[in-house]
Amino acid sequence: MVHCTRFEDKVAIVTAATAGIGYGIAARLGSEGAKVVICSRKQANVDEALQKLRAQGIIAAGCVCHVGNPQHLKQLVQFGLASFGKVDVLVSNAAVNPAAGPILDMPDTAIDKILDINIKSAILLCREVVPHLPRGGSIIFISSYTAFSPNAPIAMYAVSKTALLGLTKALAEELGPQGVRVNCVAPGMVPTKFAAALVETPEAEEASKARTFLNRLGRPDDMAAAVAYLASEDAAYVTGEAIVVAGGMQSRL
To answer: Which residue windows are transmembrane per the record (predicted)?
Structure first.
């Protein structure tokens, strides 16, 4: 249980935040005092997540948003401003992986979707949010441990996550003079619906655990804790960085 209020009087927008890692991030920021704006492609999912957040005493608002639609991104930011009057934190979490296999065998439609949702939408969302961020504002991208060593069968997805590492560095330099920090969290194996194959069988689950030093899979709460640190004043001198939250899985030296 978290008993601090690092985000009192702050407003955070979290994309793809009705389940899994995104929901965990919204709940963590809200538990520390933030007003949270969540979104998903389906209204029913938004309503269910809002009910759960509000049951925890979190002040939250939510709307439907398909991040691949630039107009929806504009509407999301305007919804957040209309709901709470400002934006202090953006967590860009939405991602897709519509196909698996070697990159050169990937259908054009799958490549386009991965690039649009995982990279382009993150850039366009920042374009909408940045004019409203104050000094001390924070942007956090959700990448992946696979970004450091993309391999089959999810190499195209992993490459899109590698791009977020570069985007983090580039925007950190661009926005630093404005006092806005940009960082990235690279989750390890977290058995959400998005990554259900990790625990598809008991054997698969044990094999996944064995790849970590801690012999366990990650949890949304683990990722949320890293995001909360990076978004807070505790990380006031941290920008352009990626934190790997993967239980010791090999990612980089």
So the answer is: none
